[in-house]
Amino acid sequence: MIRSVICFGAHPDDETMLIGGTLAMLAQRGVRVHVVSATRGEGGEMGDAPGVSRATLGAVREAELRGAAAALGAATVDILGYVDPVIGEDEALYAFEADFDTLTRQIADLCRRYDADVVLSHGADGEYGHPAHVLMHRAVLRAMSVLPPDALFYSFAAAVPGIEDHLWNTNEPAHLALDVRPWLDIKEAAALCHRTQHALFKRRRNLKTVREALRTVESVRRRLPPLPDDAPLDETPPGDAFAALLRAAGAWQPVHTQ
């Protein structure tokens, strides 16, 4: 039985835009959802929210995160305190500076504190290649090595064939995909909390509303415990309790070609 799920993101809004519908579903089903962000997003875009400056952006985005997590039904919010580097020229992205051992210890400590049955985090590709997302993926993998061997780690935004999305981790085929339209109103309420990022959400695909920017299919791939390397992608998905919970909510097994 899944009682506690912890979601590790690099920045505020990762929890909403990448896996928010799934988190809302879990909360509705009585699972305690814990949201963790490595940074306060102080290096990101300031958008057109009134009164926001580079100096105040971190505090503003932390408040946005807490509002979004509450909208999703999360029980707790933690911020690890790393500093998000400012976006560089030509929208160059950077990882936050961290001692890797310290970061992995923080992740493992939070997993123990919340007695997490499932850990969710970024994929190995960093979705669209964001170095901070890649760093979080690596740190979660390392942290899981000191947790019980049956601890579950699922990466999100795994690739779903037939659905184009620039955020898919293209080298990680999804084991399960979920239509989150039943929870889309909740996901939208969470996304609306991230006011400083609205212009970014819409600009990526030249959209007019935040709701249009919300992906209606979310996906995961089990990373730990690892499945056999030779397991066909189109056979039964992972047989653990989290996979069963997702299937009960309507998740399906994408068919991949090898």
User: What's the count of strands?
Assistant: 9
Overall geometry comes to: globular
What's the CATH H-level homologous superfamily?
Answer: LmbE-like
Please give the count of helices: 9
Q: State the secondary-structure class.
A: alpha/beta
CATH topology: Rossmann fold
How far apart the termini lie comes to 33 Å
- The level of helicity is 25-40%
Which regions contain 5 or more consecutive residues with pLDDT less than 50? none
Strand content: 15-25%
Largest sheet: 7 strands, mixed
Gross CATH architecture = 3-Layer(aba) Sandwich
Mean pLDDT across every amino acid position: 94
User: What's the alpha carbon Rg, rounded to whole Å?
Assistant: 17 Å
Number of domains: 1
Fold and architecture overview:
There is one protein chain. With 258 residues, this protein is α/β, with parallel strands linked by helices. The protein has one domain: LmbE-like (Rossmann fold, 3-Layer(aba) Sandwich), CATH 3.40.50. 33% of the residues lie in helices and 19% in strands. The strands form 2 sheets. The chain has a 7-stranded mixed beta sheet, with helices on both faces. The protein is globular. The model has no long low-confidence stretch (mean pLDDT 94).
Give a topology summary:
Elements: E1 4-9, H1 14-17, H2 20-28, E2 32-39, H3 57-72, E3 76-82, H4 100-113, E4 118-121, H5 126-129, H6 131-144, E5 152-156, E6 158-159, E7 169-173, E8 176-179, H7 184-193, H8 198-203, E9 217-224, H9 241-248
Summary?
The chain has 258 residues and is an alpha/beta fold.
Task: Describe the structure using short key phrases.
single chain; 258 residues; Rossmann fold; seven-stranded mixed sheet; alpha/beta
